[in-house]
## 1
Amino acid sequence: MAAKTVNVALIGTKFMGKAHSNAYLKVAKFFDVEPQPVMKAICGRHADETAEFAKRFGWESYESDWHNICSRKDIDVVDIATPGGLHHDMAIAAAKAGKHVFCEKPLTFSMKDARDMLAAVRQAGVVHMVNFNYRVVPAIALAKQMIAAGELGEVRHFRATYLQDWLTDPKFPMNWRLRKDAAGSGSNGDLNAHHVDMARFLVGEIDEVVGMKKTFIAERPAEGRSAGLTATAGEGTEKVTVDDATLFLAKFANGAFGSFEATRMAPGRKNYNRFEINCSKGSLVFNFEEMNVLQHYNCADPPGRQGFKQIMATEGVHPYAGNWWPPGHVLGYEHTFVHAVYELMKAIGKSAPGSAGGSIMADFRDGAQCVAVLDAVEHSIDEGKWARVEKIN
Amino acid sequence: MAAKTVNVALIGTKFMGKAHSNAYLKVAKFFDVEPQPVMKAICGRHADETAEFAKRFGWESYESDWHNICSRKDIDVVDIATPGGLHHDMAIAAAKAGKHVFCEKPLTFSMKDARDMLAAVRQAGVVHMVNFNYRVVPAIALAKQMIAAGELGEVRHFRATYLQDWLTDPKFPMNWRLRKDAAGSGSNGDLNAHHVDMARFLVGEIDEVVGMKKTFIAERPAEGRSAGLTATAGEGTEKVTVDDATLFLAKFANGAFGSFEATRMAPGRKNYNRFEINCSKGSLVFNFEEMNVLQHYNCADPPGRQGFKQIMATEGVHPYAGNWWPPGHVLGYEHTFVHAVYELMKAIGKSAPGSAGGSIMADFRDGAQCVAVLDAVEHSIDEGKWARVEKIN
Amino acid sequence: MAAKTVNVALIGTKFMGKAHSNAYLKVAKFFDVEPQPVMKAICGRHADETAEFAKRFGWESYESDWHNICSRKDIDVVDIATPGGLHHDMAIAAAKAGKHVFCEKPLTFSMKDARDMLAAVRQAGVVHMVNFNYRVVPAIALAKQMIAAGELGEVRHFRATYLQDWLTDPKFPMNWRLRKDAAGSGSNGDLNAHHVDMARFLVGEIDEVVGMKKTFIAERPAEGRSAGLTATAGEGTEKVTVDDATLFLAKFANGAFGSFEATRMAPGRKNYNRFEINCSKGSLVFNFEEMNVLQHYNCADPPGRQGFKQIMATEGVHPYAGNWWPPGHVLGYEHTFVHAVYELMKAIGKSAPGSAGGSIMADFRDGAQCVAVLDAVEHSIDEGKWARVEKIN
Amino acid sequence: MAAKTVNVALIGTKFMGKAHSNAYLKVAKFFDVEPQPVMKAICGRHADETAEFAKRFGWESYESDWHNICSRKDIDVVDIATPGGLHHDMAIAAAKAGKHVFCEKPLTFSMKDARDMLAAVRQAGVVHMVNFNYRVVPAIALAKQMIAAGELGEVRHFRATYLQDWLTDPKFPMNWRLRKDAAGSGSNGDLNAHHVDMARFLVGEIDEVVGMKKTFIAERPAEGRSAGLTATAGEGTEKVTVDDATLFLAKFANGAFGSFEATRMAPGRKNYNRFEINCSKGSLVFNFEEMNVLQHYNCADPPGRQGFKQIMATEGVHPYAGNWWPPGHVLGYEHTFVHAVYELMKAIGKSAPGSAGGSIMADFRDGAQCVAVLDAVEHSIDEGKWARVEKIN
């Protein structure tokens, strides 16, 4: 008997478009999952490029107007992998059309938009999920298990830095990520968003924040041709309208302390997504640049035998890892997307959809709550003092 | 106009079968390559399992007798991903049938078989390649570039350890890798083979060797059901007929010194494939457990500013890396197979095939020369003294 | 001809007393320095213990009342290695008696006291130095040289964490470091003080701060017998009157951004004094737990050859290192005190004392400015908003 | 009542002379030990330099002829810190004069000399100790405790590399370490000696070896002025008469496998003394460049929570560490000499001397057995095959 399937349409053909396409391609080859995704349609702004992309990655059809995606009867799931400024309209339209919605992070930029989106998916009764893909790094899913099992005790410190360096050079040209209308914000919405979600995932809700931000290089060469994070310069210059770096301190509802730092001006840090959690019974450390490893300090180890343990989360006993290769045969960045899509399929497969279906992935409420924290950071910066984080129900 | 294609048949559906299938699935999605592989046929011993595998990975057809693969007119390339004991017959049959041959390592076990295989592919004039996949780890391909460019100077030391731990537990049951008839040897053929090839790739030919080997656990529970490197025990015990560990020292033709150590009895080492090269102008270090990093010490750095540099080989300027994700978005084990298949396709695309088509991959002569080194290691162990390595032309 | 000497009196016989004694013992054995210190007198509260200490470490005499130290004619230098609450009175008395003053950090707790102390040493015209000993870790002195030489360019980020774990266990008993009257504050004055000085040393003045602090464990077993950082519990409990953790964000006068985090509740972190500096031309990373290493990322390295370099600052060309052992023969914590005393002796040896004599060590103005930053952190916490840092001239 | 003391005479004023002097200076300040060493006499070849050295380090007297040391009545202990070629005559003379003997490694060069020396100290009934100082690195003493307690199980692999780089540059001039008459051998006697002792200390006796050696740079600039490991070139050249690198494989009596590699031609490796031990219950890793850390993999850790643990051996519970500073306040190279002298004093303090008095330090039998292993390595090289190691009783 053939496996149950769902038809997926993906909007977005750039960096995220590739990462999502790869995930749909692979998920049922490495995971036993029902339903299995059928790569039904890909959507991009430029018809020719999108046709080419469809052919390359094996999408059955393509569209150059995303509205078509929502109106097509043969689509069950809409996957939104576009710049954040487009998420709101797409997600609401998809939900209204009864499609399950899988949306890239950040969910959106404003609290109002976030609430609207959440209301829409709830009203539609569809599965809704936000792709905070780091949740499904095996080492991080392991951290979640350990915290949930009480192995770490009460959390006291969450300390996160997300460092990149691609804006260090003032000659690096403009692209959409540096424009407020398309990207919403810079390092805050792009990088801190990941760590705000991680903090909520592993520690709990954030009550108050105080932050600072800066655009170190205010003007850059105009955009020429770009691809992914690289680009060549065009003529003239353009004003950068987002932050290069945003830092903030946080107080969690459970009494833990948080510090967050995101920057694109840290030479040598390519995708240095690192966090450390200090608890009453031990500590955990993760650094994406060594993504297969979770460091664990356990206060219960015998005296004289204590130390940070490098757990290489590549064994069959670790989350997701057993579906891939033997121990020590390390995974990479793209595997997180496969795991996310696996969770998406499982959520859709459950009889009673709504939210992320009990998976460890984030749903739209999580996405909205992340927006609320980032929003509070902006408020704290505007007013030079601590700001309370709005609570999304 | 459609891209040129070649029809591939893959023999093997286990660990390597999955890794190769994944590579064919992905290569043309991330690399612009001609010809592109068509996943024509998969071959496994058990028809049902193979049918299932074909469906899962998208192979167009399947066979349960590998001879059929060789006789099928619609196959251009035969990819042999079986235990080493089967390589000889398969490769020769494929070559005789005029197929290009892509063969897993080790090429085979005996010098006679290796010479026969090399003669067969040469006579057939087909492309022949051995999948020493570590050559195409971006960090290692970078090392090769640096050495070739003279950045390191004269090589003096090559020091390699390939450590695993899956045989530490005496209760771990038998599988084919522990039987001499199927696997040829244990750690020597499986693990040292990789480093012998790496040494030849980066340093040059090996003239003489002296070694030692041991089977620490002589008898193990009989095999029950196995999958990849894991298995459950059946009833009774069986004698292990291969080595758990093999070490040897080597003298290179160019005067460099080598040391090699392979073991499956090193607790905590999952796939610790590490080597260090010390040269007249600097040093290089690689460890597969951090496969995205090449360490480089450069004697030409200014005094007081010298040290081992951690080059994360994930930038556009690094080999293969630019086809994947932005810098710092790390790759994993399976990407090496994609790069290998990319090199295979390029070699096939050249007008005058024969050998590995000028790529950095190993051809059958390389595979045979590796067998010659491993063979000399065995001789040296038998005789308790240094043994000369036979030279394959 | 005999070398010039100065007579030193040290107040303090605990952790810091040992560290300073060891430094006086060793400085002239490993460094050619004039004047050389004569270990004239040691001062501690308990006569018997102090006599014992004097004998053990080779101090010529001892006192149990520090006022005697100041009135003794045979003392040239007073070294204050007591809890911070005693620094003010001791330093002013010593200065008034015309002694050079070497004071442990933090200089003192309040702005008023700091100003008084600075005025006293200035008026006395004596050499004054605060023992921010991390400045003279070879790897850090190297960092200073590199920044001063323009190798890093404009500083954009300074990110510091000083993590310890000795208060994680609620059963750890009280000691003077947990009492506000003796210690001034907890992690802020003890740990952040080091990083505030480091930030000023390497980056520049701090203009504004905003912080948060917390005492996670409000009450602890009463003090029994203690030694260094360890202690046994007595009867009953006592209220902890200092912070367990203090975090703050900072804006530097030159536009750089800073983040500081100090805690004694980070399991596994023993003396994790780590900072990272991101600049326009590169980055530097230091972690005391690997104190012989400075990590350097240099944007000027050739494309494809960039990465963090591990400079082991143990070579003759590195600051202080050449006076000790051959390269790679690593130094430890206590060597920083020897270097500090070496700088003290050099400063005293100069014809025109006043301040730290042009050395890289901190003088009382630096010490006072550090107090001003910590003070502003406290203000910002009290008021829940950014606070300006007072400027000491 | 005053502590018991012994009068020490030290022969040697260079690198080792400094390291030993520092140890005598410090041992009784940080350790409660009886007897305490009195720094009675220092001996060096050049009277003026030795007088200067005596004054600097606080030796009460000096000699320029070592025979005087042995005939002086006021000397209880002779510490031999000269090049190895002088050890034999000095140790025998000291023993005959009834002095306890503390000798730098290697004990000597030939089996005959080693046997003579061992016979001499045994006949004299004095304490005899060889300064294999790495035994008393806290992390290594901890490793010894763990192995002795059965925490690791049966040893299967000992893998050691001792890498330095000071001979990489062909312009580096001659010094005594490159002359066979003074140094006995090069990397083998200097560096492998340490690891042979370590192997015996942690694993057990070695039965058989097979090795290789090479002098990569046969001729060097004549010696000019030298100090420690650095030197300036004089006129002309001189032939190097020792090996730059020596590697060997080993079979232990208990069935374990060993590999040893020493070289002075490994760019970037300053004092890279690293070993790894794989056992039936776990693994240990040590690297001197991070000398405060012992890595431990424990097979008994729960599934999914296994990994290499970084034990920072700086806590009170760790060997020697509690006598120094609080946890995380790292120790350096020179502390190993203090620990060695502490063990020496304890051995002398025991009522029944002879051998190393039950301490974990090596005695002359250990030193002689190490010579036997190095000697067998040389034999194996001469004959191109495995050589048996002579057994010293």
## 2
Amino acid sequence: MNNFEYFAPTKVVFGKGTEKETGRLAKEFGARKVLVHYGTGSVVRSGLLDRVCDSLKEQGLPYILLGGAQPNPRLGLAREGIRICREEGVDFLLAVGGGSVLDSAKCIGYGAANEGDVWDFYCRKRKAEACLPIGCVLTIAATGSEMSDSSVITNEDGMIKRGYSSDYGRCRFAVMNPELTYTLPDWQTMSGCTDILMHTMERYFTKTPDTMLMDGMSEALMRTVIQNAKILHENPTDYDARAQVMWAGSLAHNGLLGCGNETDWASHQLEHELSGMFDVTHGAGLAAVWPSWARYVLSEKPARFAQFAVNVMGVTGDCTDPVKTALEGIREMERFFHEIGMPVNIHELGYDLTDEQIKELAYKCSFFGTRTIGGFKVLDQEDMVRIYEAAR
Amino acid sequence: MNNFEYFAPTKVVFGKGTEKETGRLAKEFGARKVLVHYGTGSVVRSGLLDRVCDSLKEQGLPYILLGGAQPNPRLGLAREGIRICREEGVDFLLAVGGGSVLDSAKCIGYGAANEGDVWDFYCRKRKAEACLPIGCVLTIAATGSEMSDSSVITNEDGMIKRGYSSDYGRCRFAVMNPELTYTLPDWQTMSGCTDILMHTMERYFTKTPDTMLMDGMSEALMRTVIQNAKILHENPTDYDARAQVMWAGSLAHNGLLGCGNETDWASHQLEHELSGMFDVTHGAGLAAVWPSWARYVLSEKPARFAQFAVNVMGVTGDCTDPVKTALEGIREMERFFHEIGMPVNIHELGYDLTDEQIKELAYKCSFFGTRTIGGFKVLDQEDMVRIYEAAR
């Protein structure tokens, strides 16, 4: 086990009816003037936004509304939010929505609490030294942004998608009512389940030895998400399945399961370029990339993939041939992705990449040839080309 | 899954050499004048106290030393600490030691930050509204006090042991270097491992349905502690086994694994009276009580104990007879306790209880006949008598 730091201070308020607690929580965490940030119509149509605003009113908290955050949230809207915060003296951000709204709120929080251009942080030119405090009411289990330190923003200028991570951006509180996720389209729910699995797998596929506790907890989480995703694919209003998946989503990405592991993140970075270029749903993009990544890197440590196959995918292990067991685990994962309607390659995702596009994706993903990605196996620009080719 | 709140804001800094970070962390969390609280000689003899104080000096942080905290920490010393904090203007507590030192520090923190008598909180007469901020350097994996909201104090007047839980008392940071636990006597290490297991089991034995994620994570943690306790019983300086157990100790009691479960805590409460009367080691006391509790309550939900038997203790399940499987799991746990030198009844713990003593224990444990204990099965004073009788 490697040395590590773990810091996940978000207060989670989980269960039926918890959105009514939002105003009380905002006040508890010091809010005096709130920017309520949300996405497109569904939180308005469902009446959730009204219920949340009513709970702010009950606490006497003034607020300003800013809707319009979209999947793969844009820098332009965040800049608008930053302007409003500065002009109106907003001191607390309340995100009502999913990962995109939350990531947009984090970007607003960094921009409003620091001088200069917020895009600098996402380009790694400098580090944020503060963030406006953020609370959230979560409406989809997926990105784990409600407890994580990370946010991802797309700059419309070149459609460049970049992530930034900082403890300053972690939510002060997260309200999670699984019932709020009942009305999600199946595609969104299944993409969310895939994202949750992948947050765990990016940490689980490691060459760090002696990780028994984190291995076992990660495997339990993955088995839980796989079983409950299948239930939700058939019955989207199964409360307990929604609850298991929603809590798993937070634990998959709050930093817990990577403690002491060298982590990977190559699949995420390969996918970020895809969804920057084509605006695909993040989870589905991950499903389209992962099998090809897995087969490309497997030989680094076949035993790790064999452990995954046996402990997560229920494959009967063949001790004499870990590679065979490992490959069967990857095939089982592909069968699961198909069972819940996810793609296992980029063609199934709906795009047929040209050679030129693959070169462009790898060029962007390698930060114009300046970085490698991956921890399980370090991948350079040429490796990225090969994985995109295998995945197309 | 029930509704729940989860809040574990402690920043964990884990691994080799991390005690050198103590001063930096204290400063990061706002310390200006520190009370360094510790126990008896070992942290002095090992040089740990000097290294920690050096890191405070490097940050220019003035500090006052208060040693003398003992196992089952006493109210008297905490009152002395409260007096010092008030007179000297201490604004940060640094606990260097194990659960007893930490619990003593929490008691000091509550007393120094609130008016009136600190014992009121432990008697449940009123609730603390603040606590001095606390950091810790942990020297034993056991109580989980480094991330938990709980503390346990013994009032010398009547030798009454009482716990108090509040989010205010959670540590701001916890420095955890597994190497610091190498020199612990085997008895302490194994009692610690037992305590960690029991923190998990108190949450795991629940009748709440649909707890798949927490079940799987708890089972992984218990398997990890059982396997690594056996390793440490043979080789106390195995770093990775120390590390697995230490991290498990924090996760077993930071609130995570009970999320959405109705919890139990009867074994802990039965043991508190034992160690109040006899000053036994907490973990060993739990091992002496648990098997009798388990057999007494098993019929409430045999399937739960059968699941434990199969998924944690490696028993081959007999689907036609869950009670048989359940009982075999309890016997396997007793075999494990014996293998690591723990008792499985109060006689083996070193005490032969008289009928009068059993009556007194049950009388105190029921708060003089005014409360029941337990969630898996609610136990009244008469039930407590029967479990103590079975355990003697």
